[in-house]
């Protein structure tokens, strides 16, 4: 058990796990304070950032639920709260009316523009660490993230480049790229946004 100091004493994975848990607690505290200043909760800000940076055709309530690791019902409540504040709008997906797409309203975009410093405290905490140490840390975290993703405990959204479904420069000037997963052509701007279905290519 990672909370038992005697167990951690002779178990590196337990010590690392405890360190990650403590970091998660600190992140929760920092983001809560930063969110309070905007009159929103951290999860509401996550929803706004999801709507802002996720490709529009996959910015669904279901994918948002997966991104934050919650149930669809809870995600709906979070989104409805933002709809009530006039920050997010909902629309049915044309191809499947059972799916709800999320969009920022004009007011929602204003709030997102004010989030440049949200999470900055964490970045500042890493600022005193050498690039060499950060590089090793990044590799280790990447391995943890990959393991948790394979177990279905984490959703990692990334832009199209590097995804096995992404076919660059396969279309025309208006929509030059193609996604084999959703079987549609994408604008270059859309390909730069995050997709929850990103599957790393074995060539990357």
Explain this structure to me?
By secondary structure, the chain is mainly alpha-helical. A hairpin with a 4-residue loop joins strand 4 and strand 5. The mean pLDDT is 90. It is built from nine helices and five strands. Among the domains are: 42-114, Orthogonal Bundle (Arc Repressor Mutant, subunit A); 158-204. The two termini are 36 Å apart.
The largest sheet, given as strand count, sense and whether it forms a barrel, is: 3 strands, antiparallel
Regarding quaternary structure, what we see is single chain
Please count the beta strands (DSSP E, at least 2 residues each).
5
Q: What is the molecular shape?
A: globular
* % residues in beta strands: 5-15%
CATH architectural group of the domain at 42-114? Orthogonal Bundle
Count of helical regions: 9
Name the features.
globular, Arc Repressor Mutant, subunit A, three-stranded antiparallel β-sheet, mainly alpha, 204 residues, two-stranded antiparallel sheet, 9 helices
Task: Give a topology summary.
Layout: H1 5-9, H2 12-36, H3 42-53, H4 61-68, H5 72-84, E1 88-93, E2 96-104, H6 106-113, H7 120-126, H8 131-150, E3 166-167, E4 177-179, E5 184-186, H9 188-191
Antiparallel strand pairs: 1-2, 3-4, 4-5
Helix pairs in contact: 3-5, 3-6, 4-5
């Amino acid at each position: 058990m990672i909370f038992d100091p005697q167990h951690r004493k002779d178990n590196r994975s337990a010590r690392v796990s405890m360190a990650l848990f403590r970091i998660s607690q600190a992140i929760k505290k920092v983001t809560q304070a930063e969110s309070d200043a905007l009159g929103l909760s951290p999860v509401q800000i996550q929803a706004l950032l999801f709507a802002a940076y996720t490709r529009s055709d996959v910015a669904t309530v279901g994918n948002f639920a997966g991104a934050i690791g919650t149930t669809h019902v809870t995600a709906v409540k979070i989104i409805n709260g933002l709809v009530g504040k006039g920050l997010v709008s909902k629309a049915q997906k044309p191809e499947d009316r059972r799916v709800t797409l999320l969009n920022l309203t004009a007011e929602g975009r204003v709030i997102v523009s004010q989030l440049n410093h949200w999470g900055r405290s964490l970045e500042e905490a890493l600022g005193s660490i050498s690039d060499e140490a950060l590089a090793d840390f990044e590799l280790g975290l990447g391995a943890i993230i990959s393991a948790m993703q394979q177990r279905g405990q984490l959703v990692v959204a990334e832009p199209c480049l590097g995804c096995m479904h992404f076919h660059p420069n396969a279309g025309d000037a208006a929509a030059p790229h193609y996604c084999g997963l959703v079987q549609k052509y994408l604008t270059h701007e859309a390909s730069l946004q995050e997709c929850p279905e990103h599957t790393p290519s074995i060539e990357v």
